[in-house]
Amino acid sequence: FNGQELELNYPQAPGITVRIYDHAGKINLREIGRPRMRALLEKKLGEDADDQIDELIAAWGDWVDLSDSTGIDGAERDYYESLDNPYIPRNGKLETVEEILHIRGFDEVFADVDLDAAFTLYTDDELINLNLATVEAMRLLPGLDDELIGEIIAFRQSNEFRGNGDVAQIVPAENMAELRPWLNS
């Protein structure tokens, strides 16, 4: 369940890769709230993109809320029906990970992300188990960069994070302050 490529004992089509991930190591799109979504967007776009982030958060909020009322800077049915390939917004929790790409602006933000490896809908928790976290999910988490992700992966090869103290041995205090709210340990 760590995402490494598996070799199956029966023939498979060329180009097919089988991996198993524990969903506790992914970001849960069904449970994520606006503050956490904002933090992900700030990580992807930079803190200087406040106006764009505000619009994305408004569109996210309109997509997952139960009403057809458009919030300020949001997007509801009239917007989505005006597109070249029109569709109707969910007005509820996402039903697939890929659905995030249907929300106005999110297709551009997450175009370079392996959605199935980074996100899930199948846990009851919005926190992430760093012992199981996918590289794709960690790349989206505030406080982590590729160097720290490499150190986390190296630590996990022979150890287990038993609490935030273990994480803090790898992640500097300033980064840990951003990362801590995302961790379940």
Task: Report on this structure.
It is built from nine helices and two strands. By secondary structure, it is mostly helical. 37% of the residues lie in helices and 2% in strands. Strands 1-2 form a two-stranded parallel sheet. The longest helix is centred in the N-terminal third of the chain and has 15 residues, at 50-64.
Features:
single chain, 185 residues, mainly alpha, two-stranded parallel ribbon, globular
Mean pLDDT: 92
Structural Rg: 18 Å
β-strand number: 2
Order of helices and strands, N to C? EHHHHHEHHHH
Main sheet specs: 2 strands, parallel
The helix fraction, in percent, is: 25-40%
Helix and strand content put the structural class at mainly alpha
Uncertain regions: pLDDT < 50 for 5+ in a row? none
Spatial strand arrangement across the major sheet: 1-2
Number of distinct helices: 9
Basic shape:
globular
Strand content: under 5%
Distance between the termini: 19 Å
